[in-house]
Amino acid sequence: MLEYIDSHAHYDAEQFDPDRDELLNRIHKGGVCYIVNMGCNMERSRLSVEYADKYPFVYAAVGVHPEDVDGTPDDYLDRLRKWAENPKTVAIGEIGLDYHYEGYNADLQKRIFEEQLDLAEELHLPVVIHSRDATEDTMNILRKRGKINGVMHCFSGSAETAKQVLALGMNISFTGVLTFKNARKALEALNVVPLDRLMLETDCPYMAPEPNRGKRCDSSMIVNIIDKIAEEKGVAPELVAKQTTENTIKLFCKIK
Ligand code: NI
C-alpha cells in the first residue's frame, strides 16, 4: 500500500459536510498518513486548527487567501499568531495573490500577503503560497526577501518560473492538473523540479485528477497524481510517495 501526505486540502469545505468524519478516517486507513488542512480566512483557519486538534493525522495551516482578503479584521495577525502557537499548526497558508477574477484589489492583496510573510518569518514557520494570474507580482514580492521557506502550491506557471521558484529555495507542489489532457505546460514545469523538491497535494474538494476529473476530490486520489509523476520521471510510484513524504516533513517540521 502506498503511503503519502496530502500537503494541501480543504476539508472544511461544505462538500464534505455529509461524511467528513467517516471519509477522513477511511482515507487515513487507506494510506494517507498526514493531511495538512489549509486556512483561507478567519473562520476556515479556526476550523483547520479544530480538525488538527480532533484528528491525530491532520495538521493545520492558518492564513488569509488572496480571494478572501475583503473584510479581513484589523486584528487578524494576532488571531493567526494565537492559532500558530498550536503544536499542530505547521505553516502560514494559504497566502498569496490571485488576479483571476475581475474586481480584485491588488493593493489590499499585496499588503495582506506581505504582512503574513512577515508573520511567518517572525514565527519561523514555512509558508504555503497561492499565485494565480499574478506571477510577476508574486515573484517580485518573494525575490525582495531572498530565500523563502515554503512551497508554491498548485503550480500553474511555466518551466522558467518553476526554476525561479526553486532558486528561492522553495518546494513546488502539483495537483490533479498534472493528469488532465491539457497538462503539457504543467508537465514541462514538473520536468525541471527535482524529486527532492516536490510535494503532493489535492487541493480537495477541487482539482480531482483523472479519471475522476469534475467529481469531488479527496486525498485518496493522490495515487493518480503519484502514478503520473512516476511515469513522467521514470521512477517507481513508491519512490515518489516516499520522497515527497520526506520533503513535506522536512518543510512542515512540526509534523510528528
Ligand atoms: Ni487551496
Jot down its keywords.
256 residues; 9 helices; 41% helix; binds nickel (II) ion; TIM Barrel; single chain; eight-stranded parallel sheet
Strand content: 15-25%
Please indicate the count of domains.
Answer: 1
Biggest sheet details: 8 strands, parallel
Number of strands: 8
Counted by DSSP, the helix tally is 9
Spatial strand sequence of the major β-sheet: 1-2-3-4-5-6-7-8
CA radius of gyration = 17 Å
Low-pLDDT segments: none
Give, in order, the helices and strands: EHEHEHEHEHEHEHEHH
In CATH, the architecture is Alpha-Beta Barrel
Outline, from the CA principal axes? globular
Distance between the termini: 21 Å
CATH class: Alpha Beta
Structural class: alpha/beta
Could you characterize what this model shows?
With 256 residues, this protein is an alpha/beta fold. The protein has helices at residues 20-29, 42-54, 76-84, 106-123, 135-144, 159-167, 184-192, 222-233, 237-251; strands at residues 4-9, 32-37, 58-62, 89-98, 127-132, 150-152, 171-174, 198-200. It has a single domain, classed as Metal-dependent hydrolases (TIM Barrel), CATH 3.20.20.140. It has nine helices and eight strands. It has an eight-stranded parallel β-sheet with strand order 1-2-3-4-5-6-7-8. It binds nickel (II) ion.
